[in-house]
Design a protein that fits this description.
The structure is a single chain. The protein is mostly helical and about 350 residues long. The protein has a single domain, classed as Farnesyl Diphosphate Synthase (Orthogonal Bundle). β1 and β2 form a beta hairpin. The radius of gyration is 20 Å and the shape is globular. The termini are close together.
């Protein structure tokens, strides 16, 4: 980690410890050790669940699985279930389900955005074409529900159906707003639907498996919501500030695709007319024609917009920690208390 990352993590941790008087949090390596066997089983489950009699689906599924990813969503589900000492196989199965759903959304997103790369590799649609990838994404959605049905739990199915509806609605709403200047409330609604909703559902699914009370499920759902909001705000900032090598895709992809994110919205609230025109030009033309990435960064830095976005992410991270402060101290709780620090401090 860089000095900036360590400093940001320390700031978030210190603020949270002062407010919550929380015990020392667990670190990333300890979380991996805590979930090592479950995550290995999850990878095997993911591999089995994405095998089809149609070769193209199997090939696309394996390509996407091999692309890696943080597996933060299934890890949250596993931790949520462990919070209630759940011992069954369902957490691994549902962990694979949420990762398959997440993977399906990435396939469809890359097609809609005409993305060329994903995690430093060619996007699946550049390898197999849009038609095959649309259908493969649909198959992955249906396969996820097929696996989820095995739990024979209507609450789980209802939760997953509501999730997928929210995510699809979010994608459609975003398409309607491409190239337009939107409010911060509209932006937060979009990132809830596209990201935070899935984080929240992961926590709730673990709680349902563990037999949580209504209040406990709600608290964990709030934790997931706030963590997901922080995650996406940081993701949007990194899209503007990180290097292409770190991101594994072109920088400022959101602006090129006509998407307005929090730092840009913040800058637009106070910038000069010529600066506003420069941002609008990129959004409308979907390209940096006559306006450089450096110029945009200069505008954002001039108005403290990157810092404002980081501060909002840190506030969501703090809120996530507060949501679970009433749970008894345990190794699992300490892992969940660490996750917001990781989300805010990460650099990719």
């Amino acid at each position: 980690m860089s000095q900036r990352t360590l400093r940001k993590a320390a700031e978030v941790a210190e603020k949270s410890r002062i407010i919550l008087s929380a015990p020392a949090v667990i670190n990333g390596k300890e979380i991996f050790d805590l979930l090592r066997e479950d995550l290995a089983a999850l990878e095997e489950e993911f591999g089995r669940d994405t095998v089809s009699g149609v070769r193209a689906i199997t090939e696309i599924g394996e390509y996407l699985r091999a692309g890696g990813g943080k597996r933060i969503r299934p890890a949250l589900l596993l931790l949520s279930a462990k919070l209630f000492d759940y011992q069954g196989r369902g957490a691994v199965k549902l962990g694979a389900v949420v990762e398959i759903i997440h993977t399906a959304t990435l396939v469809h997103d890359d097609i809609i955005d005409e993305a060329k790369t994903r995690r430093g590799r060619p996007a699946a649609n550049t390898q197999w074409g849009n038609s095959k990838c649309v259908l493969a994404g649909d198959w992955l959605y249906m396969q996820a529900f097929k696996v989820a049905v095995q739990e024979r739990n209507f609450r789980i199915l209802d939760t997953l159906i509501e999730l997928t509806q929210q995510m699809v609605e979010g994608e459609l709403l975003q398409m309607e707003k491409l190239g337009k200047l939107i409010t911060l409330d509209e932006h937060f609604d979009l990132i809830y639907r596209k990201t935070a909703c899935l984080f929240s559902v992961c926590m709730r699914l673990g709680a349902i498996l563990g037999g949580a009370s209504v209040e406990q499920e709600a608290a964990l759902g709030q934790y997931g919501h706030d963590l997901g909001m922080a995650f996406q705000i940081v993701d949007d900032v990194l899209d503007l500030t990180a290097s292409e090598d770190v991101l594994g895709k072109p920088v400022a992809s959101d602006l090129r695709e006509g998407k307005v994110t929090m730092a840009v919205i913040h800058a637009l609230q106070g910038c000069e007319a010529d600066e506003r025109a420069a941002i609008e030009k990129i959004l409308q033309e979907r390209a940096f024609n006559g306006v450089t990435h450096g110029q945009i960064l200069g505008i954002l830095q001039r108005y403290g917009s990157i810092e404002a976005a980081h501060d909002r992410a840190a506030a969501y991270a703090e809120s996530a920690r507060e949501a679970i402060c009433s749970f008894p101290d345990s190794e699992v709780k300490r892992a969940l208390l660490w996750a917001p620090e990781f989300v805010v401090a990460r650099e990719k």
